[in-house]
Design goal:
homotetramer; alpha/beta; Rossmann fold; Dihydrodipicolinate Reductase, domain 2; 7-stranded mixed β-sheet; 28% helix
Amino acid sequence: MTLPEVSRSAGVVATPLALADAPRPVASAAPVARVAVIGASGYSGQEFVRLASGHPGLALAALVSREHAGRPAAQWIPGLDPRATRLPAAVMPEALDAMLVDARVDTLVACLPHGAWKALSAERTELALASRVVDLSSDFRDDASGYVYGFPEQLRDAIAAAKRVANPGCYATAAALALLPAAEAGWLDGPVMISALSGVSGAGRAAQLRTSYVELEGAASIYRAGTEHAHVPEIERVLRRAGAFVSVGFVPQLAPMSRGILLTANAPLSRPVRADDVHAFYARRYAQEPFVRVLDAGVWPTTRAVARSNRCDVAVTVLHGGRTLLVAAALDNLVKGAAGQAIQNLNLMLGRPESEGLTMNGSPW
Amino acid sequence: MTLPEVSRSAGVVATPLALADAPRPVASAAPVARVAVIGASGYSGQEFVRLASGHPGLALAALVSREHAGRPAAQWIPGLDPRATRLPAAVMPEALDAMLVDARVDTLVACLPHGAWKALSAERTELALASRVVDLSSDFRDDASGYVYGFPEQLRDAIAAAKRVANPGCYATAAALALLPAAEAGWLDGPVMISALSGVSGAGRAAQLRTSYVELEGAASIYRAGTEHAHVPEIERVLRRAGAFVSVGFVPQLAPMSRGILLTANAPLSRPVRADDVHAFYARRYAQEPFVRVLDAGVWPTTRAVARSNRCDVAVTVLHGGRTLLVAAALDNLVKGAAGQAIQNLNLMLGRPESEGLTMNGSPW
Amino acid sequence: MTLPEVSRSAGVVATPLALADAPRPVASAAPVARVAVIGASGYSGQEFVRLASGHPGLALAALVSREHAGRPAAQWIPGLDPRATRLPAAVMPEALDAMLVDARVDTLVACLPHGAWKALSAERTELALASRVVDLSSDFRDDASGYVYGFPEQLRDAIAAAKRVANPGCYATAAALALLPAAEAGWLDGPVMISALSGVSGAGRAAQLRTSYVELEGAASIYRAGTEHAHVPEIERVLRRAGAFVSVGFVPQLAPMSRGILLTANAPLSRPVRADDVHAFYARRYAQEPFVRVLDAGVWPTTRAVARSNRCDVAVTVLHGGRTLLVAAALDNLVKGAAGQAIQNLNLMLGRPESEGLTMNGSPW
Amino acid sequence: MTLPEVSRSAGVVATPLALADAPRPVASAAPVARVAVIGASGYSGQEFVRLASGHPGLALAALVSREHAGRPAAQWIPGLDPRATRLPAAVMPEALDAMLVDARVDTLVACLPHGAWKALSAERTELALASRVVDLSSDFRDDASGYVYGFPEQLRDAIAAAKRVANPGCYATAAALALLPAAEAGWLDGPVMISALSGVSGAGRAAQLRTSYVELEGAASIYRAGTEHAHVPEIERVLRRAGAFVSVGFVPQLAPMSRGILLTANAPLSRPVRADDVHAFYARRYAQEPFVRVLDAGVWPTTRAVARSNRCDVAVTVLHGGRTLLVAAALDNLVKGAAGQAIQNLNLMLGRPESEGLTMNGSPW
């Protein structure tokens, strides 16, 4: 595990007192990627565009959207002031071929519904010309896919060397960060049970009755609980890579909020552990991670604290005489759970500061 | 366990096709309680007033509120049309003494913050004149208190014979209904872990920063997770009464919604059980319960479906080769988790139909 | 204007102290309608089913839904407990012909998207056999349609004599109740400007991006402001019937809430009027109306106070030395703005108590 | 009116395609203010801290909070990662004296409840040492106060020359931007009626029942409508300065959303004007304003589009044959309505680029 850039780069801030991860000048020798965002009108696509716009290493060369092709970005990305916007108009996916051939684009970020990037990349072979691909869908998250799993806290060096990265899912990122230290420590023994709330943007932007306002205001629901949810194997692979061969049960829940994952996990421990020791181990494991914060003992996470940031908050303790691990995590599903993590991965792939263009500080309202 | 009245009383409905639990005439020979609601301006107090107003067996003889004493009900119970309201103005607690002495009041329903009813009833000895007391706080929920624990699905006959009833907490009601069949079946083996979301009304009506609108919109939080939460011993007592001596871990969460509890629990099973058998056992156990519904296999609860009803929805399955029980429950914290259950208990205490004045049907928006 | 039934029927309540409009026995000599609800799965259709289920004069004989035909009501009306439900399974519109012919159905309540009832009733001539029709869409709200406009506060006697009633829109109901007394008094002089918030259920239940949860949480929008909105001529007709020939400007707004209309209107007055006189006039005008309440001077409406009730709250004053009328109104768009008003109209058409099955009391959360 | 810096400074962005107002290097010759934020824990105080943290011209030298004195910023400003935070711990107001004397602080930004800054500055005379003061309360918004009214779109040059600035209220900013061109054009004739929605953060962060979650979810309310609201004279002063001596009626409304103002105004016009001409005039008037955008004809504002930005969206048309002006505006009450406008004013006072540290682009969710 290499030392993340956060503390070093923080040093350049000109103001004597400030949030250390505020925007700042960056040495311009680092490579700049010419990025095409495929599926730019969905929630994670839009979020990527917003985050990348302020990033000195990412030039937004193409925004791809079948639905909005030909329309200026400010007409279909809510909130943009057209006078302030230098973004290109949307193009069809077919337009990418020529842009890759003549190197106007060298990096693809796919923010498509599950299945669509696999289909598109199989069909249009010129897309293989891209120097870098980050796919935010679940299409290539299995180990046999040729994509590196884009989970920096576990696979930082592999990502830095990769040309193809499969960005983790939002649930899996939260679960993986909650359980990784315990898995690495060899503590997990027997099934892990996970209960997690997701904000509604996690269900995508296509209009559906189940994500309509009236159906959700003031109500929470469980859906597809069990072991069959697509995220279960993704979480099990993370744990297996860390040496823990345990099965996972998962209870996803939809809460009336636009953003955020709030997750709790419990598991029997292989031997009794003291709460202090578990906490200290977690704190040490994540001490150098810019985007993971282990909360003080007795403090529990809230999605509010991590909203609009790339940070994941983790809390951990043991119950029942040290025989049950109880761990919780909160993150923003559109940032650390999607677009922010994609940028973290691109930073690694480009050899730029890992935390560039990202914030550790949440904006709660 | 006696047969609940729901199916029988449903027969009287005049309309050929209707929701069976719609309001209907009731034989007037049954006793009518003269009720004082103490703490009528809080969320559960108001909810009790609304539900009791349409109940032919409950005459609202006094509304007690220090803050609003002397003011007509329509001025401090939001939504009431003063022209339609025959409720009395609020009185001070001190006024109850005379009302009990001359039998204008014979039943007390205490909807006070925790600790307040214990203090008030110790201080004002005339309150002991009441023929019936239902306390919605946690003050007398322990077995040594002389109060019967008002959980009809477990203690129906004792409640029917009681003069003092401690109404269960909202979290404990959801947890108890989720776990009762498994406990009775002797399946529970080892610690039970519970993760539960609560709507904000569960935190009471006193103004607090942590329940302010801006602090909660679009955000979910964990608070006081572990084994120390006041509800843990309450849940453990229910399970013990059913023969299961297991410890409980509890993760309460605050979700951005006014009403509702959504709870999941998992526990290791003493021996592998088939999902079908678990489901069938739960369905049989609750078949005669008017206010518990076991959802079809594969369907999971939502707070929306039980909103404003006295119903609790329960879903159950097993994971990990039948070795882990996974059960979920949803209810409305102000109804089945508070005021509705208080009415259910009063119905039993009065010898009236158990479901009188209550609805099994949720109103989702 | 005949005296509404509210005060009389309130007298029967058995409990000494209660909300006067709580459910109560009703003389059974009154006629019972056999109702088919067409479009029963939309928000107003569902609301009608819920309200009508407890109504002794309305037998729900058929629920019509193309989408859900053949499915039990509890599978597609959220919240219903199938054990408590005596509602019929959904049928196709085509099934109504035979039901009308053999008098299993004699009353049609159309809760369809605008345009659909006009098309359906033109196409299927057997539908003309119905003894009574209430259409909740805008299809027949113009005076030339042969339908009576179902605004009881203005057209009570005509409704009572009608066989076809066009139920007013939710915006128009709020605007009409806000302005009717001023129009009748001859005070309105010059254009009326209306600004109104609507809850999201007013946009219907079809899945649309613009009514998706994420698009609406924490945000309010103006849409189609001006004089072209479909509701403007509807409001102008109400005012004209009352003698006020003024034009109307309208600013509809979508607020992040499921239910409710909150409306303000201002207009120049033909001559200066004192605030006390305006208030007294409004109070007198609505004194006998069960479902309109004029708030005390200085109190302004909130949608919370009328939620889930059939009541409209109205506040009125004058500004600028008595030369500008300022009036506000709040109602529940699904009740007084749709299904509740439909029941009020059916009560009138059937000669039953006008307020039967309806509540004047709001349920704020 | 000087040309705002937005287009010029946008030119430095390194990326070929980007949001033009994204963070960027700034010439460091410009003066840097040493800022004390007084009342830093309220919503506008926190927002100021967040915005100022990334601002190269504002050094956060002191955060003043009686409640949190001595505590590190990350413990009381939600969302901050203590590892990323270089903010000072909170101090008591008394600590400012010494900091002003030895020039550790030279600029005061008061984010206190109304009345508190007036009292504090009268009591502690050392506060007069500050080179610059921006007060966000209503204490000094009248013309006789010696403070310049901080409304850049009207008083840019006076602000640039000022040492004391009274930051406008959120309602007044929206109203003023909606009406300023019409007032300057001499079109306004007769009373202006304003209806406005505010997000809940506008009511401050002190815990109150009326801003509690349950009281507000799914509900909108009118409060203190009329001509007496504190903002009415503030709006009338803006119009008078522009030559329009008209009275204003105001209907403030609380909507269930954390942020945002959505305002509509109507007024009789002194002579009929064509819609195209009104729109063209507004567009020209605001063409050089970085933070005001006139929407295309037929497009109406939404708070979503301006959330978390310093932009105000304005839409304008005429009704009733050109005799009624209808104008609407949306802004974020915590940014353009408070902290963002304070930074815009500080930029002017410091001679820095007016749009520095601020964004024209909204972040809708």
